[in-house]
Design goal:
Elements lengths: L2 H12 L2 H13 L10 H8 L3 H14 L6 E4 L6 E5 L10
Antiparallel strand pairs: 1-2
């Protein structure tokens, strides 16, 4: 069994199986640009999945190493990334 398949197997034990199947399909079939900065709420809406289950599944997937999680502070005018951090605590609240 490949490493990815074993990670998906572990993910199925802690997350909604339908959501895991959708994530697995995304990783397998989507172009690279679709896997960069995945918007989980948009993913849930497009796939007809529950938002909370999708968020939980992606958080578990990040813990397993299937995804990297980062926090971006976006400009309210242009939507560009002003700051990025690997933890929520690293985001400068004052700015």
């Amino acid at each position: 069994m490949s490493e990815a398949k074993s990670l998906y197997s572990v993910l199925r034990q802690s997350a909604d199986p339908d959501t895991v199947a959708a994530i697995e399909e995304l990783v397998r079939d989507a172009p690279d640009r679709a896997l960069c900065r995945v918007n989980v709420l948009d993913f849930a809406a497009k796939t007809g999945l529950d938002e909370e289950r999708a968020i939980a599944a992606f958080l578990h997937a990040a813990r397993l190493g299937l995804f990297e999680l980062s926090w971006n502070v976006l400009c309210p005018s242009c939507g560009g990334v002003l700051e990025a951090g690997t933890t929520l605590k690293s985001v400068d609240r004052e700015e």
